[in-house]
Amino acid sequence: MNGTPGVLAVRGHLAPGRPQLPAWRGHLHGSDLTWSIVFIVPYAALFVAFVIYPIGYGLWMGSNPALYAELFSDPRYVRAAVNTVFFVGLAVNVQMVLALLLSGFFMRRRRWIQALLAVCILPWTLPAVPAYLSFHWMFVAYPQGLPNNLLAALFGVEGPFWFNHNWLALACDIVANIWKWMPLWTLIFLAGRISIPQDLYDAADVDGASLYQRFAYITVPLLANLYVISTLISAIWTFGDYAPVLFVSGGTPTFGSDVVSTLGFHYALDYANPPLAVGAGLSVLPVLIPLVILLMRRLKTTEVQL
Amino acid sequence: MICALFSSPTRRPTRYRLRRILVEASSAALGVIILIWSLVPVYNMFLVALDPTGHNEFTWEIWPSHPTFAAFIALWTGEADDVRDIWRQFSNSIYIGLIVMALTLLASSLASFAIGRMRLAKDWKLTNVALLTYVIPSSTLIIPFLRVMHIYGLLDNPWAVIAAEVTFATPYAILVLLHYAKLIPIELDDAARIDGASVVQLYMRIYLPLMAPALAAVGTYALLFAWNDYFYQYMLLSSEKNTTVAMALEQFFDDDDAPWNYMMAIAILYSLPPIAIFYALRRYMALGVNGRRING
Hints:
The complex is a heterodimer of chains A (306) and B (296).
Chain A: H1 5-10, H2 30-61, H3 65-72, H4 75-105, H5 111-120, H6 122-125, H7 128-140, H8 146-155, H9 166-194, H10 198-206, H11 211-239, H12 243-249, H13 260-270, H14 274-282, H15 285-301
Helix pairs in contact in A: 3-14, 4-9, 4-11, 7-12, 9-11, 9-12, 11-15, 13-14
Chain B: H1 2-6, H2 17-49, H3 70-77, H4 86-117, H5 123-135, H6 138-152, H7 158-181, H8 187-194, H9 199-210, H10 212-228, H11 231-236, H12 245-254, H13 260-281
Helix pairs in contact in B: 2-13, 3-13, 4-7, 4-10, 5-7, 7-10, 12-13
């Protein structure tokens, strides 16, 4: 058991001893080099025109230090920054832990459990806009709305006015995000678990290991790398994910549940201040870039296919 | 509950019968919870879509009290004012989706061939460059993006959306293709070269046919990416003739008086193609290893 369980976990079908590709320098010459460059040109052109140029333009728009002074003195921004921390921290970690546990449940070889898996991935297959609009409709009315109606019908309790309170509104956004993305990570962890050799569990059974021991000493160490990579990807993705907040709570009450990415929208569209919007977006980069570097390092040393 | 989560399929001696019953009962309970959790928002879509007016937010109903397919019929006939343009919106979404799929396939297969087969660069270098595309969140990037599109003269032009979506779908597509291309022996290319094949022939006659399954996966991914995207369409398009389905949904969302039964009916129709594609292809999702397959 070496230190790269992610490779073991996900690359199962690849031959482990793949011969190294020769160094590229000196290998290509003449028409081969020309053709390679011709082949890469379409993507390179796209990349320069629609990635490099806009990013450069954005950095230039957000290069004025006064922008950030204005930003940090805006109470709406401070609020949104705190919300972003909770939104990303809770949504990512809760869905990862639940997905890890659920993937264990779906390892059971029962027909009804496999059928349930087909239902469980439904949220992931839905497009984001309709899914979040449905959440919006469930929570927007007071005192009615489907969750409140269910509470009243089942327990006789009157539900809260979800969007009238900062934290409740943000909680609705977090729940919607978890609902939408948890199935994807469940499938990925399920794939990871399936590739753990059954012999390890058989050996543990012979030694009389408990369920908890099997989980803690076999499953967790072997899935750790996959788990870290998935968490990083999910965190990077959730930082920029405006859709749950924009469509579920819409930032109500009065910017109380906005995150930085949706506050940028308000700056750009409602206040006609695009540079401030770019500044808000760039202000998350000090958190985002270390995450991306961590992810690059992980991906460089291990090969995990998602 | 915890037992059910951690258990795995193995036979147990009879003296564990009590524990087995507990495990079965708790996994059944967990199953019910998962079922409710996954289906309630979907059920809510139908609850609104089947309502005669779509204004059922202030009723206490948990079942549709007067279910009617009026909203779906109105979509089909296009008679109601709110949904008159719905088929043009669907055809706009399909048009954008198909072109994004084709261009993503072209750009990613060419680039992955140059990098993976011709060894123009090491692929982890490309991984890093590709990740750069995703570093700045799209919600931030869109603002300079709008200015750049203005400079290119592409505002309110479907090709602006197509360019944006191809740009964002291609890096991931290249990574998948590079990964899959490693499974095809490079000796095939060498043999073809000895027989006098040109680079273009290698690409057309060997690379593309052998990569067909991966290309199908990447093409589906690009199609769904474009179909599900709302953001670039909303920001870059404005005129009525260019409106897509996702934009139409957003217009309902902004309009407080809009009949939400139409909106949810559109939302259901809009969700059907991706759901159908996912479930049709789930057997081919490259998740099965060691002879076991996920039947999700």
